Amino acid sequence: MQPYEKLLLENKAWAAEKLQDDPDYFNRLVHLQTPSFLWIGCSDSRVPANEITGTQPGEIFVHRNVANMVVNTDVNLLSVLDYAVNHLKVKHVIVCGHYGCGGIKAATTNTDFKPVLNMWLRNIKDVYRFHRQELDAIVDLEERTNRLTELNVQEQVFNLAKTSIIQKAWKNEQRPDLHGWVYGLNNGIIKPVFEMKTGTHIDGLYEYDDL
Ligand SMILES: [Zn+2]
Q1: Please, which pLDDT band fits residue 32 given cuts at 50, 70 and 90?
Q2: 136 in helix, strand or coil?
Q3: CA of 29 to the centre of ligand 1 (A)
């Protein structure tokens, strides 16, 4: 059997098991898409949103990319955000990074990863530069990368708050709250590192007054 065929086989077993536990399971899910949470996480295979939060299908709307970035020219991310905020009416947006992130580590090297990855990692290098003083003062390399992971999550939460999508929802519907979390691959624990309640003021330059 090919490895990918095993996935299909496992899928059949999973579906059968679900039906056995609850014959109405899929019927109910088909008519239910009202998640309260948007999760923006890393594509890393070791950080599955549902599994580590003990949530079921239908509970979290998920977007994942390398190093959980919120890039203001990323049509994919912005479409997900727009849909989650304006149509699904999520109450919380969670940016969840993780310690030991390959994307974060790569951004701290001088390696040329060639055009596309370089473009993406540049956004993380910028985060390092914003916080260079604090980061350079951390002698231990792993500790420094861990701190960059936390600061990156914080910076991506700021990036969410800079969008008119979030600002409009804050103004008109007093939601969603924004959360920055970091997951520990070594212990499975999520550490909340930053939070922005609805309506929080940011640098005035980024605040739209004609929403
Ligand atoms: Zn990662």
Answers
A1: confident
A2: helix
A3: 30
Listed residues: CB within 5 A of ion ligand 1? 42, 44, 101
* d(C-alpha 25, C-alpha 17), whole Å: 10
Q: Residues 63, 96, 98, 175: which is the catalytic one?
A: 98
Cβ pair 78, 103 in contact under 8 A: no
42 included as an active-site residue: yes
What pLDDT score does 33 carry? 76
Please give the C-alpha separations between residue 150 and each of 3, 17, 100, 179, 196, in angstroms, as whole numbers: 36, 39, 11, 12, 15
Q: Which amino acid is at 75?
A: V
- What Cα–Cα distance (Å) separates residue 18 from each residue in 12, 39, 73? 10, 24, 40
Q: How far is the CA of 102 from the centre of ligand 1 (A)?
A: 5
Q: Which amino acid is at 130?
A: F
Residue 151's pLDDT band (cuts 50, 70, 90): very high
Nearest to 151 by CA among 174, 175, 171, 126: 126
